[in-house]
Design brief:
mainly alpha, about 60% helix, 10 helices, single chain
Length: about 220
């Protein structure tokens, strides 16, 4: 396991979670609920935050200890879990739907056709994720700008569902813990293939390694 990691690297997972959250429930669902029933429902945000804190911590600890993602771990119990989670996350987010809602907001500011703007957004997203050598590094930089602009609103109340699982990918792609031995997600166009098994490794239970684990 590696020690002396840069503290700056630790910001990554939170930036992604905040960026994803700011684009969905916190801008659409919670304002709508507040407009209908007032602030009486704020307790639900607190429950979500506390629950997701423990979920995210355990997801990250699993990847720190093994180097493999939580999704790979789930697949050890049943090989189809990957497909199940992928479908659940897809239907929960439906990118065209979120892109159209964002495009509609843009039309209030600058006008234009929401459908064409949404299509343009999807093309830009697709090109960015395809051409970035390391996908999660590009995603972190984009989300960091987004969150920096919107941080003052303090709107973030946690991501949910399949979005929590990206914390696992982040630990691996940042090379934390045993993630240093597992290949990252790279672009098929501009990325450099990292030939290595996708399954992880359990570190040896020596006093030195356990010391690093506690750190």
């Amino acid at each position: 396991m590696r020690g002396n990691q840069s503290w700056f690297k630790l910001i990554g997972p939170g930036i992604i979670a905040a960026g994803v959250g700011l684009a969905s429930g916190e801008f659409i669902l919670y304002p709508y609920i507040a407009s209908q029933v007032g602030l009486v429902f704020v307790w639900a945000a607190l429950v979500g935050l506390v629950t997701q804190f423990f979920i995210n911590m355990e997801i990250e600890r699993y990847t720190l200890a093994t180097g493999e993602t939580a999704l790979t771990g789930f697949s050890r119990f049943w090989r189809h879990w990957g497909l199940v989670f992928a479908l659940m996350t897809f239907f929960a987010n439906l990118w065209p739907g979120w892109a159209t809602s964002s495009a509609t907001i843009v039309t209030y500011l600058w006008g234009g056709n929401a459908n064409y703007i949404a299509i343009g957004m999807l093309l830009v997203i697709g090109a960015t994720l395809t051409l970035a050598p390391v996908v999660y590094t590009a995603l972190e930089r984009i989300e960091m700008v987004k969150v920096a602009v919107l941080l003052g609103a303090l709107a973030f109340a946690g991501s949910g569902g399949g979005q929590n699982l990206v914390q696992s990918n982040w630990i691996r792609d940042k090379r934390f813990g045993m993630g240093v031995y597992v290949p990252r997600i790279t672009s098929p166009v501009t990325g450099e293939a990292e030939a290595a098994p996708s399954t992880g490794y359990i570190f040896e239970m020596t006093p030195e390694n356990l010391n690093r684990w506690r750190s």
